[in-house]
Amino acid sequence: EVHLVESGGGLVQPGGSLRLSCAASGFTFNDTDMTWVRQAPGKGLEWVSSISSNGSTPDYSDSVKGRFTIARDNAKNTLYLQMNSLKTDDTGVYYCAPGSAGLRRFPTLYTLWGQGTQVTVSP
After folding, report:
1. pLDDT category, 57, cuts 50, 70, 90?
2. Cβ within 8 Å of residue 106, ≥6 positions away
3. Which residues, other chains included, contact 21 with Cβ-Cβ below 8 Å and sequence gap of 6+?
4. Tens digit of pLDDT for each residue in 31-43?
5. What is the mean pLDDT of the chain?
6. Are 51 and 71 a contacting pair, CB within 8 Å?
7. Count of other CB atoms within 10 angstroms of residue 55
8. Could you tell me which residues come within 8 angstroms of residue 102 by beta carbon, excluding any fewer than 6 positions away?
9. Helix (H, G, I), strand (E, B) or coil at 24
10. CB 70, CB 81: distance < 8 Å
């Protein structure tokens, strides 16, 4: 059974940083493209970033490009999202999910196996 546990969220001021982690189990992580999506309060899911199975092809939404960095450690079955220069618009629940950037226009097609981690950016 697929098991994903997101962590690392919290309350941070604008301009601050957070590093999210996603611990994966129950599937062949190092053969799977991975994605971060988020859901802001009262809004739908938004694709944030994806990375190929070997980590060679990161992709970012325009809203986070240049501020966020996606990475993975296949030896640890863990996905990361380093978030810098955070803005209030980055507030939301962040989820990791198996899947590539090919689904970016249809983020509801990503299966969210975890509970997500809350990120709140507030003065």
Report:
1. confident
2. none
3. 6, 7, 8, 78, 79, 80
4. 999 999 999 999 9
5. 97
6. yes
7. 15
8. none
9. strand
10. yes
